[in-house]
Amino acid sequence: MPELSFMYPICNIFKINLNELFLGEKLADADYKKKAEENMLTLVKGTENMKKYCRRPSFRLCRYC
Questions:
Q1: Residue 37 and residue 43: Cα distance in Å, rounded?
Q2: Prediction pTM value
Q3: Rounded CA separation 54/62 (Å)
Q4: Cβ distance 17 to 29 under 8 Å?
């Protein structure tokens, strides 16, 4: 995944949106909403997992740290 500051310029060059960049594929208009919702759920689940497993102070390494 590219650095955050490069994401919008990359999208502009390829004439895609962030959702398509994250998915790695061009979306039809009909699929856009469904895929956007799936990406949001994935993001929320990842954030919840980080909160669950990455508590401070902890000397245990997890797959999210």
A1: 10
A2: 0.52
A3: 7
A4: no
Cα gap 13→56, rounded to integer Å: 40
Q: Give 9-57 pLDDT, tens digit per residue.
A: 999 999 998 888 888 888 887 787 888 888 888 888 877 777 776 666 5
Residue type, 20: E
> Are the C-beta atoms of 32 and 19 separated by less than 8 Å?
yes
DSSP state of 62: -
Contact 65, 54 (CB under 8 A): yes
Name the 3-class secondary structure at 18.
Answer: helix
Per-residue buried b or exposed e for 18-52, using 16+ beta carbons within 10 Å of the residue's own CB:
ebbbebeeebeeeeeeebbeeeeeeeeeeeeeeee
